[in-house]
Amino acid sequence: MATSMHLSKLRKWFLASPPIEMALSKLRELLIGALRQGPVPQHIAFVMDGNRRFARSHGIETVEGHNLGFEALARILEVCYKSGVKVVTIYAFSIENFKRSKFEVDALMEMARVKLSQMAQHGEILERYGAKVRVLGRLDLLRPDVLKAVNRAMDMTSNNGDRVLNICFPYTSRDEITGAIRDTVADYSQPLGSHSSSQRTPFSESHIALNIQAQHQNGKPEDITSDVGSASGSSTHADEAAAKEDQINEIYESGSAFSSSTTLDLAGHQDGHNGKKAAQNNGAESENSSFRSPETITRQTLSNYLHTRENPPLDLLIRTSGVERLSDFMLWQCHEDTELVFLDVLWPEFDLWHFIPVLLGWQRRISKSRKNPDAEGDFDGDVAEPSENDQVVESSEKVKGL
Amino acid sequence: MVSQRDRELFRDDIRARGTKLSAADRENLLKPYLPDPSELPRRPPQRRKKTIARKTPIRTFLKSQLHQLIYTLIHIFFGIAVRLVQSFHAIVDRIFAIVYYHHRTPELIRKDVKNLDRLPEHLSVILSLRKEEDALAVLMDEVAELAAWSVSAGIPVLSVYEKSGVLKSCIPTLHRVITTKLSTYYGGASQQPELQLFAPHHPVYQPHGETSFEKSNTDSLTMLLLSATDGRETFVDLTKTLTEMSQNGKLSPDDITLELVDAEISEITTQPSQGITTRATNSRPGHDAVVSVKPEPDLLLVFKPFLKLDGYPPWHIRLTEMYCTGYKTNSVTGYGEFVEYQGFLRGLWHYAGAQMRFGR
């Protein structure tokens, strides 16, 4: 026992001695420089799990564990930004965490406040080197003094370079998705107004239908104009949606062939459909028709209302401490092509040496799938083959024939 | 990398809640670690670029060459290491596959999971359709095997995710395939567990010929088929409906709460649509379509080389344990067998060993 303690002390002293320290830091720089040569993920998310367990197993206070966790974060941020990662998203505090002991919650809040306000003191340095700091989540749940520090830090860094640090502060993904839905609904419920300045399509079915309707009903003229405006507006929206769907189709080619083709269909026929509806509603609820059509909502629309709307898609999600769960983090974002990595290391111990294998594995996979999309590691139907659907149909017929 | 001395200073400052050092002190502490301002690609790039380029052209060139070299070297060694690990895993897998084989005997499977502390109440699997000719037949066979293993292990709910949704289009065939598979495990129809198969927006499928004789086996399995359309697309649909309601003034955006969304989204996977259940009601009055599914899966098995959700419905996997059966690429045949009994079993063991903590 005593010898091992002496040994660890000796090791610590050895590692802390200036020449070794310098050599290590040179080595780190070299490795990071080497990593830059390959493809680098644009957006990485971290779940910083294990601070409390680290504190417990090392016999220190929980708060101390969180402090060490912050140091680990600083270390890993340095690695990320130096190697070319654009956006780092960290899960700092879940809405569920408010259920923890008041002492711990207060300590965490205090830590966030101190860090953020300290950051704000170094305006000039931040401006030169800093990343954009954004705090995502339910800011209304924060204490006023913390909120003030948060806003100050976000304001100060809002003009910084292209690196972004997203801090999910009181955050859960379900809350985020709900918020996105709510905002979309609220936005679409804003009346467009009759002066929508979109280019008019020369003739639209709905327009004709309306005219006929108007002639029959001798409806009020201003009603008609407003309806026409909205109808042409919504038809251009439909076109937009169709174009968007096309894009999405290109991206998610094979996977959602069924779904997107139906939506595309809807968007395509929507013009006439809408016209009919508008014609039906013409007399009864004319104020109602000056809305954007809900049919133009797509997956992209919802994504645009998320907190991460400005960021590239998530490439890599890393969770430490061996818990293999998302815990309500980035549920929507982890959707398509994100690689999830669960590491069996506590967050305060997390360092370049744990991070490198993950990054290398990712690089390996990406460069392989770029070179040869059909190669191993990526044969899960991601790469669309034009014949795939036919083949499926064919084989399903075969199965039915069995 | 921060030197030990500076780290101690920094920690002292933290212990004193950031009062010990002034802003200027902290800046001095930080200075040695910041890159040289001239190295940064800053806003007015016209001016800077020139100076950088002129300063150390040879050194920069050598440096980038060195980095390139090291990158290549690292990847060569990493590739070798990965191969070694993969072959090691492959050997371990073979051994497991020999030691643990189900022999199509439910009792053996039950014995294998007997000592586990907990079993998932709702198991979910991600399968993928391959590109071979008989891909669908293979996929159906995999689903049938998984169904048999799950019901033998005592897992009441199994949901199967396959991205393209091809399984949903042939539910009757799938039902037949599974029943056939179950009969190889359990024998005659009276010994077979009850099977309920449905997909979101589809009624529970029960074939015509199902007679209502007494079953000697009281186990039951509810299977849910999911596809990419049940993921984000469902949220889009929900948003559309809500928008329509809001535009008609039937709902205010503030009414949209997490609970509402949860209830709506959960309903889709827990309650089969009641629309056309006549067939089911005809065959068994009073006993049909009462399906209760726990919407959140406890365990998600990913039968893929690495962990990727691939469009899995996002809402319900918040507390789901994920397990990836991993490395199973057979370089000889091109396609490894992904769905294997030992992989299934390892997933269950892993689940039983993991400790559950709510709220992180």
Describe it.
The complex is a heterodimer of chains A (402) and B (360). Chain A has a six-stranded parallel β-sheet with strand order 3-4-2-1-5-6. With 402 residues, chain A is α/β, with parallel strands linked by helices. Chain A folds into two domains: 38-171 and 307-371, Decaprenyl diphosphate synthase-like (Undecaprenyl pyrophosphate synthetase), CATH 3.40.1180.10; 191-303, no CATH class. In chain A, helix 5 packs parallel to helix 7 and helix 10 (221-251) runs antiparallel to helix 11 (257-281). Chain A has helices at residues 2-16, 18-35, 51-58, 62-83, 102-121, 123-129, 144-157, 173-188, 205-217, 221-251, 257-281, 299-303, 352-371, 388-401, and strands at residues 43-47, 87-91, 132-136, 164-168, 316-319, 339-342. With 360 residues, chain B is α/β, with parallel strands linked by helices. Chain B contains eleven helices and six strands. Chain B has a six-stranded parallel β-sheet, with helices on one face. The longest helix of chain B has 43 residues, at 57-99. The relative contact order of chain B is 0.11. The chains are: A alpha/beta (402), B alpha/beta (360). At the A-B interface, helix 2, helix 4, helix 5, helix 6 and helix 8 of A face helix 1, helix 2, helix 4, helix 6 and helix 8 of B. Chain B: It catalyses: n isopentenyl diphosphate + (2E,6E)-farnesyl diphosphate = a di-trans,poly-cis-polyprenyl diphosphate + n diphosphate. Chain B: It is found in: Endoplasmic reticulum membrane. Chain B: Its EC number is 2.5.1.87. Chain B: InterPro entries: Nus1/NgBR (IPR038887), UPP_synth-like_sf (IPR036424).
